[in-house]
Amino acid sequence: SNKQKSEIISAISHEFKNPIAIIKSYCETLQKEETNQEIRKRFLQKIEKNANKMNEIIDRLRLSMRLEENGLTLDLESINLGELVREISKELEQNFKNRNIKSSGEECIICADRLLLSIAIGNLIENALKYSECDVEVLFSKEGVSVKDRGLGIKEDDVKKITGKFYRVSKNSWNNSLGLGLNIVENIVKLHGFTLHIESKVGEGSIFSIKFTAK
């Protein structure tokens, strides 16, 4: 218990350190110097962006805890999977300029919790964008969703551990906020009765798949 608390505090401290430093720096500049409206607006936007980042970290930690404690119930509905993938892809492309997400597959309707499934698929696509430079491919069908990248790849030993809470392969790769991204994905997948499959080769890339039917 003490070790887990220490890991949580360490992870939060690490993730908050940079945005807090940025917010502090811009606030000090705005207080001390005469700035025109354009510069002032830009500084305030930076402050807002980093404040939002801290909120996202907190929300992610709370979601992880609720999933682990079985504190969430599914709000199931019929979802057009192709539309959902395209919606998530379009939103992420706005955050990752000059990057393309190629989605294709069989148009189908599935039964799932729209919000939670969006978080899971979004996490997988975002990871692929962060840790590769080529286009990201998303394939979907009534069998599941697969996200493919041609990035760094993951060692076999790390593949077995990567969905663990707070686990990070290295400081520079697969480093989602607090190391919770893939842990959240796996818990959402399990809550639905789906399965998460990971295929990866170092130097070649990875394929993360959410299978709607257990195998």
Description of the structure:
The chain has 215 residues and is of the alpha+beta class. It has 6 helices and 7 strands, in the order ααβαββαββααββ. It has helices spanning 2-32, 37-68, 81-95, 114-130, 156-159, 181-192, and strands at residues 76-80, 101-105, 109-113, 136-141, 144-149, 195-201, 205-211. It has a 5-stranded mixed beta sheet, with helices on one face. The chain has a two-stranded antiparallel ribbon with strand order 1-3. Mean pLDDT is 83; it is low at 171-177.
Précis, in short:
With 215 residues, the protein is an alpha+beta fold. The chain contains six helices and seven strands.
Keywords:
single chain; 215 residues; alpha+beta
Name the beta content range: 15-25%
The topology string of helices and strands comes to HHEHEEHEEHHEE
Uncertain parts? 171-177
Mean residue pLDDT: 83
The helicity comes to 40-55%
Structural class: alpha+beta
The global form is globular
Largest sheet, in brief, is: 5 strands, mixed
Number of helices: 6
Radius of gyration: 19 Å
What spatial order of strands do you see in the largest sheet? 2-4-5-7-6
The tally of beta strands, per DSSP, is 7
Termini gap = 34 Å
